[in-house]
Amino acid sequence: MTALFALATALLWGLADFGGGLLTRRMPALTVVVASQTVAVVVLGAIVVATGGWTEIGPQLWYAVAAGVVGPVAMLSFYKALALGPMGVVSPLGSLGVVVPVSVGLLIGDRPGLLQFAGIGVAIVGILLAGGPELRGAPVQRQAVLLTLVAAFGFGSVMALIAEASSTLTGLFLALFVQRVTNVAVGGGALYVSVKRGGRALPEDGGGMKVVWAALPALAFVGLADVAANGTYSIAAQNGPVTVAAVLANLYPVVTALAARGVLKERLRAVQAAGAGLALVGTVLLATG
Fold first, then answer.
1. Most confident of 61-65, 148-152, 270-274
2. Within 13 Å of residue 217, how many CA atoms lie on the same side as its CB?
3. For the chain, how far is it from start to end, CA to CA, in angstroms?
4. What is the full DSSP assignment across 175-214?
5. How many CB atoms lie within 10 A of CB 47?
6. Which end of the chain is more exposed for a tag (fewer CB within 10 A), N or C?
7. Exposed, middle or buried: residue 196 (CB in 10 Å: 0-12, 13-18, 19+)?
8. What is the pLDDT of residues 162-219, one digit of tens each?
C-alpha cells in the first residue's frame, strides 16, 4: 500500500513539475503558481462541502497552514535558482529535500530493514543523478546553491507537515483545502508585491489574459496533480514507514526527465539514464525489503 501510493505521488509530482515548467516558458512563474492553486482551491472546496470535511476542523490544521506558507516560498526559491543556473546542478540539488521526511521518519521510530536501507541509499543516488548533474566544472553562483537548499528544505518540510495534518480521508480533503488557500494567499501577496515593484503578472507577448485563459486546462492539471500528489503521499506516509514513502515519492525527477524525453524529444544524458536505472533498483529494494 505504501509503495503504491508513494509511486503514485512520484508520478503526479513529476508530471506536475513538467507541466509547470512548460507553463513558465509562457507566463511568469508566480502567475502559474497562483492560477494553478486557485483552481485547486475551487475543486477542493467543492469536495470538502460534499464530504462534510469541515467537521474535521482541529488544531492539526496548523500543519496544513504551515505547509501552505512554506510551499510557495520553496517553489519560488527553486524557480529563482533555476534562473541563476546551471539547471544541471540546481535540479538534482533540489531533490535533497527527501532528507527532511526521511529524518523525521527515523526520529519517530521507523526502522527499515537492511534491504530497505540499501534501497534508500541507491534510490537517493539515482534521484540526484536523474536530474543530470553537470559534473565538469560548471560555474555555480553561491546564491543559486543557497536558494536551491532553501527550496529543498521547503519541499521536504511540506511533505513532513502535510503527513501530520490529518488522520482521516475527509480530514485530508480539508487539510489540502487549507493548504491551498494558504498557498494562494501567500503566492498572491508575493505577486502583488512583485507587480508593485515593476514585475509582470501577465505574459509579455501581448496576449495578456487571453494566454492565461487559453492555458487554463494546463494550469488546472498542474494544480490538481500537485494536490493529488500531496494526498497520495499523506496516505502512503500514514500506512507505512515514512522513510520508504518519502524516498519513493521523491522519484519524481525521473518522471519529469522521462516526460521531457517523450513529449519534447529531449535526449537523456548518460548520467540521467544511469540515475533512472539506479532509482528503479532502489525502488525494487524498498518494495521488497
1. 61-65
2. 1
3. 14
4. HHHHHHHHHHHHHHHHHHHHHHTT--SS-TTS-THHHHHH
5. 15
6. N
7. exposed
8. 888 888 889 899 999 999 999 999 989 988 998 888 888 887 766 678 888 888 999 9
Q: Categorize the per-residue pLDDT at 85 as very low, low, confident or very high, splitting at 50, 70 and 90.
A: low
Longest dimension (CA), the chain: 58
Length of the chain: 289
DSSP conformational letter for 25: T
Peptide bond into 86 cis (omega under 30): yes
Instruction: Show the cell assigned to 266.
Output: 529531449
* Rounded distance between C-alpha atoms, residue 136 and residue 133, angstroms: 9
User: Residue type at 24?
Assistant: T
For residue 257, count other CB atoms closer than 10 A to its CB. 23
Quote the CA–CA distance of 154 and 69 in Å, as a whole number: 10
Q: What 3-state DSSP class applies to 4?
A: helix
> What is the spatial distance between Cα 171 and Cα 177, in angstroms, rounded to a whole number?
10
The CA distance from 164 to 184, in Å, is 21
User: What is the three-class DSSP state of 252?
Assistant: helix
What type of residue is 174?
L
Amino acid in position 41: V
